[in-house]
């Protein structure tokens, strides 16, 4: 058996110079057999050659995403990076900076706009502070389910009404989105109480909201008391009673460990809840056409497969799916899922829709209309009507 030998300092420098620091660090930890390069594992050789070959090295601020919560969220960020690198045959190398080490949900957009990062991810609601138009899909009760808004993102209509506006206004190229619909999550104060199935049961509750005009408007229409609270403070806020409830999507709630302070998930599904991945237009525009196509094909494939991944997570891990297993977080944590009937959801829509609350959304409509140069809500409403009730239609929006 060939013996491993510790690397000398000269060996480490040589490997790092020829094949990249990642290969050198691995080789230092693992040792080598029979010489510097031949002793590296196939994995390290592959990584080393990729680093040597890469023409484009990009930094991806994946916000709060981590391998642990990705199992519940299914944002697809790690799959997307792998696809880009594989489809580009190693010409693109992407460094994923996750776990809030590169940016927070509220700062990823700013750092991509300023080219501190090349790629970022965030929920549109959190992006809204630096990219106000990012919330243009999120009108309460515009979409009836996640399939509808994802079909919009797959459609060519998304270019005119969303993607092109974000590019022109903020110099970013939206790549893809993945997620669910936002529900109202009730804290432990509601343990042992009947399932909430009507707006009347929400009145007066203190609800933690994303710092968002859309979500604030929804809470006001339900006669709840909206309280902006940082995501990092939500767990303690629900424990202490500072807030009675929170709005988010189920995968995010359990992915970030909220199950210990939740009693009910009220399936209102009032607004999209998803992560959007986007790239600086300054970076994207420098790519040759074949690399641009790689990014679009990878985004398309990721959005399609992540859709199925969310369904799987809902049933196997989270517990809000159509056929949840007995081992889901909801089951183990005794979280009731108030799965509303269509008639019950219609009662929420009748009270909380944009059309029923023009005074609440007037300022938001004017602001977004000014950015896009059109009646944004009206145009989105027309698109939503065309997509209502249709199965997933993964079209290529850029061709």
TrEMBL record:
Q: Which domain of life is it from?
A: Bacteria
**Which Gene3D superfamilies does the UniProt record give?**
Bacterial extracellular solute-binding protein, family 7
Q: Does the keyword Zinc-finger apply?
A: no
The signal peptide here is none
Keywords, in A-Z order: Membrane, Signal, Transmembrane, Transmembrane helix
**Could you confirm whether the keyword Signal appears in this record?**
yes
Q: Can you supply a Gene Ontology BP term from the record?
A: transmembrane transport
The record lists the membrane-crossing segments as: 21-45
* Protein name, as recorded: TRAP transporter substrate-binding protein
């Amino acid at each position: 058996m060939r013996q491993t030998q510790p690397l000398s300092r000269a060996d480490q420098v040589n490997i790092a110079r020829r094949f990249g620091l990642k290969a050198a660090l691995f080789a230092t930890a693992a040792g080598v057999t029979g010489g510097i390069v031949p002793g590296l594992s196939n994995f390290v050789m592959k990584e080393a050659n990729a680093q040597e070959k890469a023409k484009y090295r990009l930094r991806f601020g994946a916000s709060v995403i981590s391998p642990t919560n990705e199992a519940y969220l299914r944002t697809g960020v790690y799959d997307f990076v792998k696809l880009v690198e594989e489809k580009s045959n190693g010409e693109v190398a992407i460094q994923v900076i996750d776990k809030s080490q590169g940016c927070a949900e509220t700062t990823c957009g700013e750092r991509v706009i300023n080219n501190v990062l090349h790629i970022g991810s965030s929920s549109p609601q959190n992006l809204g502070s630096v990219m106000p138009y990012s919330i243009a899909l999120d009108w309460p009760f515009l979409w009836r389910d996640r399939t509808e808004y994802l079909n919009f993102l797959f459609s060519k209509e998304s270019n005119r009404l969303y993607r092109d506006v974000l590019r022109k206004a903020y110099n970013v190229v939206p790549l893809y989105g993945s997620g669910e619909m936002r529900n109202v999550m009730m804290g432990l104060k509601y343990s042992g109480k009947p399932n909430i199935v009507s707006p009347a049961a929400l009145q007066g509750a203190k609800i933690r909201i994303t710092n968002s005009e859309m979500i604030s408007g929804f809470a006001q229409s339900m006669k709840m008391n909206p309280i902006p609270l940082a995501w990092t403070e939500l767990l303690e806020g629900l424990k202490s009673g500072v807030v009675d409830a929170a709005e988010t999507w189920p995968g995010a709630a359990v992915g970030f460990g909220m199950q210990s302070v939740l009693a009910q998930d009220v399936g209102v599904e009032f607004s999209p809840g998803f992560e959007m991945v986007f790239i600086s237009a300054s970076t994207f525009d420098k790519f040759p056409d074949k690399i641009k196509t790689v990014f679009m094909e990878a985004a398309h494939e990721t959005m399609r497969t992540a859709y199925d991944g969310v369904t799987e997570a809902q049933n196997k891990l989270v517990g809000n799916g159509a056929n949840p297993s007995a081992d889901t977080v909801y089951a183990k944590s005794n979280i009731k899922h108030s799965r509303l009937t269509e008639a019950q959801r219609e009662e929420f829509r009748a009270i909380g829709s944009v059309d029923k609350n023009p005074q609440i959304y007037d300022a938001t409509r004017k602001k977004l209309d000014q950015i896009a140069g059109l009646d944004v809500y009206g145009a989105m409403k027309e698109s939503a009507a065309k997509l209502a009730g249709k199965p997933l239609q993964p079209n290529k929006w850029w061709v």
